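Internal ticket #5521
Category: modeling
Description: The requester needs a full-assembly model to guide mutagenesis choices. All entity lines are attached below as received. Residue total reported by intake: 262.
Assigned to: D.W.
Attached entities:
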Amino acid sequence: MDEHDGTKILNEKIRNSKKIFLVGSPNVGKSALFNSLTGSYVTVSNYPGTTVDISSGKMKIGSHHQFNVIDTPGMYSLKPITAEEDVTRKLIIHDKPDYILHVVDAKNLERMLPLTFQLIDTGLPVILVLNLFDELQACGMQLHIAHLEHDLGIPVVKTIAVRGIGIDNLSSRIVEVIEKRYRFNRIEGKYSPEIEDRLSALCEMLRNDYFLSKRSIATLLIQNDQDIMDKVSKENGYEKKNELPRSELRGIKPWSYQAIKK
Ligand SMILES: Nc1nc2c(ncn2[C@@H]2O[C@H](COP(=O)(O)OP(=O)(O)O)[C@@H](O)[C@H]2O)c(=O)[nH]1
Ligand SMILES: [Mg+2]
């Protein structure tokens, strides 16, 4: 996307550093996790024209790894509806995370996985953080983390952020990813054949680098995402009125995952 369109949010120093974004729906413990991961020096910025705040703090792992952790506003889908989601999407596209921690409520994993797939589709390195794990256990549920990790092809870590449990493990998984010792084997959520055909056609049409993968951009296009449509039509001579189906994909869900066994 345009580097000079004034939509970047983070200050220059943070933007140019290595960045990990905490992404996920509201009330999953992103801010609790942020507090566990970062030190006391926190910068809070406000997205212009909104009441949406974004916190950024430094995290150091051992003596080799230092980066900024960004606590992003709650998001259910990469296609924004709320002001918070809009800010988080802009942050992802314009301020460019190096890594994403998708923080979820472990006991509601199935409801949260569609966003995991959307984030995996962006092409960015994603780690899935199953927070509120104490609540999952209190409900008498179990989760097979190794299976889930194998099936998703990304690191999966359980945490109880408010008690600082799982943070050391999360840190070592982050280091594994940073040092490229983890081999991602990301799976792609598949849509219906008609939609997959349309996505392929759109991917071939896309000529510019949009930071997010072409598949990710194409998925937003078929959902009539106005921002992305404007960008793409400007840069590719793309006639949006000819191509896009009517909200066919509202609430798209690649597939559901049966990982929770009572
Ligand atoms: N039991 C439990 N509560 C948590 C955990 N993590 C966060 N919380 C609580 O969940 C609520 C939402 O957390 P918060 O960090 O504000 O979520 P955010 O909206 O994603 O930033 C708060 O009341 C936290 O104290 C956890 O692992 N276990
Ligand atoms: Mg929060």
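Resolution: model delivered.
Comment from assignee: The longest strand covers residues 53-61.
Ticket closed.
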